Amino acid sequence: MNKKAQLPLQTLNLVVGFMVWVLISSLMPFITEDIAVTSNQIAWLTTIPVILGSILRIPIGYFTNLFGSRILFICSFILLLFPVFLISIADSFADLLIGGFLIGIGGAVFSVGVTSLPKYYPKERHGVVNGIYGAGNIGTALTAFMAPVIATNWGWTFTVQLYLGILALFIMANFFLGDKKETKEKTPIIQQWKSVYRNEKLWVLCLFYFITFGSFVAFTVYLPNFLVNNFELDKVDAGLRTAGFIAIATFARPVGGWLADTFNPLVLLMYVFGGFTFAAMLLSFAPSIHLYATGCLVIAVCAGVGNGVVFKLVPTYFQKQSGIVNGVVAAVGGLGGFFPPLILTLLYQINGHYAIGFMALSQVALASFIIVLWMYFHSKISIASKLMKTTPLGIMVTNNRGKIISVNPAFSELTGFPLKEAIGNNPSMLKSGKQSKEFYDQMWQSLKEKGFWQGEIWNKRKQGDYYLEWLTIHAIKDDAGEVTQYAGFFSDVTSDNAKASAGNE
């Protein structure tokens, strides 16, 4: 029962963590009515929870493997009681700053589930499982929607205090329903880090999540105040629109995970970053509220799908180090939500608009699209290279003039000719003399007319003994239809009787 309960329990835990994480940004229009803060201080207060929520993801991912998700969620929610209470009685910028920094723990719990939940499911379901868990992002929408409504009727301090009860409820839920027998891993964190930090895929995934999750967090904390100040919407309306953005991004996340389980994740990321590029360019032109909403809608979908896809790729590339990698990628993604609001505020003070900031997002997204494109084709080349090295079939590739340009290990094993002797040579070095000129004329005629030839042929090894091989030759053509290379695939099909017959001749 405990194992079956982990996905819904941990998803709800993330909902609560994210509800707390955006508490200040969602209530900022109300807080500023009672506590005097400048526009710069508002930018810091809405982004400061992201700092701890990002940095803590690395050790929390590691400690989840060490102690299990039950202990990590219970400890995190107990620690959150203090900053939530401090915010509820705050009467100065300093109180809000300290409380805001510490509620970052609510965002850090994300690393718990993405490290724990894959232990309960087969690899082919990791994308959708992490996507469902990641849908706990909806907690930010719940706070963005509910907090302003409650604050309008009963005040923002009472609203914050309600979260103390929610945290206490989930401390008890994890105590009784959390899995006490979760599989633990005790590999030292330094050892795990040394095994991954030089892998360029780690940093590429960090960049991708920096954009996808970072944009989700940035828009979540940036939209409520921006919609009120720039489009003069009332606070509840701004909260509803922000909640809509969060809801779309949240529900798109499990869809992204499911799609990544079904299709090539790299192809999906091409669409994601293409969408980001378009939407960010649209927002950079400071459009009307309707076009602005369209741009935000595209970013919400791309962010949600991208978040799901990235965490499908983590266990694909890092099966044994997923704990530390999940933490690092999640931390960088969280930091992706810290810098944009501050940069946008600074640019607005300098230029009076946000165009440069959104244009920068479009260019970073475009660069990410190019990186994904490179990874996609590199993976295909890598697969082809592995196939050539591991297949038992001999493979020989020549240019259109008949010079050998590539062979695989099986070629050397079957023919006796090492790589150095084969490259630059002519396939005629294998001739046995057993085939007539007409045989080769028919072979070349088939290659010219059909683009391939297949059949049995006698050849001779370097050692001088004959063997019968089954050979398939393909003519490789360019876009203009001109032959650029020939690729031959062969296997030794010599029977004992054929060997004896060949020996007698």
Automatic annotation (TrEMBL):
InterPro entries: MFS (IPR011701), MFS_dom (IPR020846), MFS_trans_sf (IPR036259), NO3_transporter (IPR044772), PAS (IPR000014), PAS-like_dom_sf (IPR035965). It is a multi-pass membrane protein. Residues 5-380 form the Major facilitator superfamily (MFS) profile domain. The keyword Cell inner membrane does not apply. The chain crosses the membrane at residues 12-31, 43-64, 71-90, 96-117, 129-150, 156-177, 202-223, 243-260, 267-285, 291-311, 323-348, 354-377. It is found in: Cell membrane. The keyword Membrane applies. Keywords: Membrane, Nitrate assimilation, Transmembrane, Transmembrane helix, Transport. Residues 386-426 form the PAS domain. Belongs to the major facilitator superfamily. Nitrate/nitrite porter (TC 2.A.1.8) family. This is MFS transporter. It comes from Halobacillus seohaensis.
